[in-house]
Amino acid sequence: MLSMLPQVLIDGLTLGFMYAVVALGYTMVYGILEFINFAHGEIFMVGAFVGTEVLLITDSLGALEGMNPFVAFLITLIISMAITGLLGITIERVAYRPLRNAPRLVPLISAIGVSFLLQDLVRFTEAIARNAFILNGPQLFTGKFDLGFAQIPSKSIVIIVIAIAMMVGLSLFISKSKWGIAMRAVSQDQSTASLMTINVDKVIMLTFLIGSSLGGATGVLFAQNYGSIDPFIGFILGMKAFTAAVLGGIGNIKGAMFGGVVIGLVESLAGAYMGQLTNGAFGAEYKDVIAFSILILVLLFKPEGLFGEAVKEKV
Amino acid sequence: MKKRTHLGILSAVLAVGMALAGCGGGGSSSGGGGSEPASSSGGESSASSGGSGQAASGGTLEKILIATQTPLSGQQSNVGDSLKTGAEYALKLQQDEFKKMGFDLQLFPQDDQADPKQGVTNAEMLVSNPDVLGVVGHYNTGVSIPASAKYDSASLAMISPGSTGVQLTEEGRKAVHRICARDDQQGPKGAKYAMEKLGVKSVFFIHDKTAYGQGLADQAKATFEKGGVQVLGYDGITQGEKDYSAVLNQAVSKKPDMIYFGGIYPEGGILAKQARDKGFEGYFMGGDGLDSPELIKIAGAAAEGILYTSITGDISGTDDGKKWQEDYKAAMGKNAENYSVYGFDAMNVMLDGLKRAIEANGGKKPTREQVLEAVHSTKDFQGKFIKVTFDEKGDNEYADVFIWKVNNGKAEYVERVE
Question: Does the distance separating the beta carbons of B245 and A228 come in below 8 Å?
Answer without folding.
Answer: no
